[in-house]
Write a structure and sequence with these properties.
Elements (H helix, E strand, L loop, with lengths): L2 E5 L5 H11 L4 E4 L3 H10 L5 E5 L8 H11 L4 E6 L4 H9 L4 E4 L6 H7 L3 H4 L2 H7 L14 E5 L7 H14 L4 E5 L7 H4 L8 H4 L16 E3 L2 E4 L8 H4 L3 H11 L2 E5 L6 H9 L2 E6 L5 H14 L7 E8 L20 E6 L4 H7 L3 H4 L5 H16 L7 H7 L18
Parallel strand pairs: 1-2, 1-3, 3-4, 4-5, 6-10, 6-11, 7-9, 7-10, 11-12, 12-13
Antiparallel strand pairs: 8-9
Length: 417
Amino acid sequence: MSDWLAACDQGDRRAVRALVRSLDPTGSLEFAATADAARRMVFESAPGELGVVVGPLSGGVSEVNLAAAVAQDGNARCVVLARGGATGSLRSRAERAGVDLVADLDGVLPAEARAESDGGRRSAEPPLLRAARSAPALVGDVSERAPVIVFCSGRGGVGKTSVVAMAAATAASWGMRVCAIDLDLSCGNLYSCFGLGNGVDLARVVGQAGGESMSRELPGALADPGVQVLGPCELPEAAELVAPYAGELLSHASVEFDLVLVDTSACFTDAVAQAAQLADRLVLVCDGRPGATSSLARTSGLAARLGVERTRMVRLENGVSPRARRDEVRAPAGEGLEAARTQRVLDGGTEVPDLLGSGQVCELVGSASPFAESVATLVAQILSELGGLPECEEAERALSGAAPRRRSLFGGRWGAR
Ligand SMILES: Nc1ncnc2c1ncn2[C@@H]1O[C@H](COP(=O)(O)OP(=O)(O)OP(=O)(O)O)[C@@H](O)[C@H]1O
Ligand SMILES: [Mg+2]
């Protein structure tokens, strides 16, 4: 008889017990009160003494990260990651992290018994929330991978694409390798801000165009030195095929680049929900048009229900008049945003649509445009909070809100690389 320790949600204990029984009919099982307690107990046990089951866990540390940490600690006899509906990508990530087995809990108990054991929680959950919860976690914290910053909004035309393009070009000018991903899968136009004729087809990137699996090296045209733009789908109808891979794509990019910026569609699709859930910072963009308050409130409420803590949310007012007072806030906060920071991007006038519309975002970098300066400050502040501000004079200047060293708008490229 061997000993097992499990860390899982209270409502899943019955299913985990059944799983352990199926793996080791004579084994004894104990449940740890918390994820931390489980890791400590395994760490303090004799090598090989405990088999460990991790998951399902909602809130706090993700199952796959905890399972990877326990496997890395090296004391466990074996590590089993227990999930409902484990995807192929989760399995391969778990395998890479040293997890011995990924067990699908859906097959362990009959469906009605599971619904009963978790109080019907899962079956009552709307599909959008379910899709987001099954998104793979990002591996490690931002000291080990690139920060992922996702921009979304409850309505169209508020400036998400413009801000993402500007943020990407700015961070690249600070020497960062930036991946800008367009999750407006059917209709996105992020690529056009960089002067590219079309986007890199995400259906190909995630292996849904030709049956191949996601490439280890992300392809893509380098829009300008330092920025790789991915997306949207070449065929709008492929969006549905790509959406389930959004989380995996972001995870992948976060280990290959220094910064991952995500543009989204105005409506909250499955892909957007996954991105929101994974984001290190979810930037909720609004403008000053009538109705901005209610759409912001709806979006922040949805993000909160997706499990995005308010510390991860940033509220961004775009198109603010350069003459507005600093403390003037246009829209009151919505659910989940009460304590979130409010950032501003200033109105850059017609120069912004003119330059972005003709693919010249890089021409705006380091210019005297209030739009460019305020986006640089936004990016610098978020990177600084996440501990990822590059050591570069221009980034430091942007952080302090100071104007960049001037160069003429249509002058040469930036120099700090
Ligand atoms: N701060 C700004 N100053 C001036 N113009 C701006 C600013 N932000 C955005 N714009 C302009 O507003 C228009 C809408 O912006 P954009 O396409 O980025 O919005 P979006 O939220 O991505 O829209 P959609 O939801 O349709 O994708 C564009 O013409 C853009 O150039
Ligand atoms: Mg857009």
